[in-house]
Amino acid sequence: MIVPMSATNSRWGMTLSDLFSAEMEPKLNNWIKRFASLDDLFSALPQLYANLRAQNIQGTVEDGAVIIGAVHIGAGSIVRGQAIIRGPVIVGPKCVIHSHVEIQAGCFIGSRCSIGHSSSIAESLIMDDVSILAGAFIQRSVIGSGCVVGPNATLGPGQMEGVSGASSPIRPKRGAVLGDSVAIGANSTIRRGAIVGPRTIVGENVVANGIYEPDQTVMLSQVLETKPRK
What we know:
Elements: E1 2-4, H1 16-19, H2 26-32, H3 38-43, E2 56-57, E3 60-61, E4 66-68, E5 71-73, E6 78-79, E7 84-86, E8 89-91, E9 96-97, E10 102-103, E11 107-109, E12 114-115, E13 120-122, E14 125-126, E15 131-132, E16 137-139, E17 142-143, E18 148-149, E19 154-155, E20 177-178, E21 183-184, E22 189-190, E23 195-196, E24 201-202, E25 207-208, E26 211-212, E27 217-220
Parallel strand pairs: 2-5, 3-6, 4-7, 5-8, 6-9, 7-10, 8-11, 9-12, 10-13, 11-14, 12-15, 13-16, 14-17, 15-18, 16-19, 17-20, 18-21, 19-22, 20-23, 21-24, 22-25, 23-26, 24-27
Antiparallel strand pairs: 1-27
């Protein structure tokens, strides 16, 4: 069982400025300001790489790494051996893509990000200064600046459960959304359609659905009970 310390449906209208306020690269920041809602932003993600027609490798691609199709690698970035990137993908400057990472088409990765060993990312927007640790799986999700995604965490899979009071389940097309400076613990799952507000901490082994307010802690609640033997 999980106990969301504050998981309410009072902020379904959470604006982009509520979620993403950290300073980003000007081009990305100005682009995000164009949209009124998360759904508008997610629907427009293909615009980020629509003009990418060929490979543009400004960083370093180590021997054994595989780059397929239209991929941009920013200056100062490193793609380690055995990593695979399938375009269209944009990787910003000063990133590290570690070995055995797989980045699928439709990803935008901002500046100074670290993608940990054996992680997998598909159709996602990852903003600046994000650290994704080993074995994470991220699908159709948006991750704000300064977030940390723990080892073997999963973002965006499955069907979101109906919120309290809803007459039917909610099935958004987008995956999970993390506001700026969110921390996700090891082995946790943030389900499709879930929104985690800025600076919220999600502990280890949590399965999170719904809307989580900024500056909260979401954790497993476990009670150790001792009874006399009969």
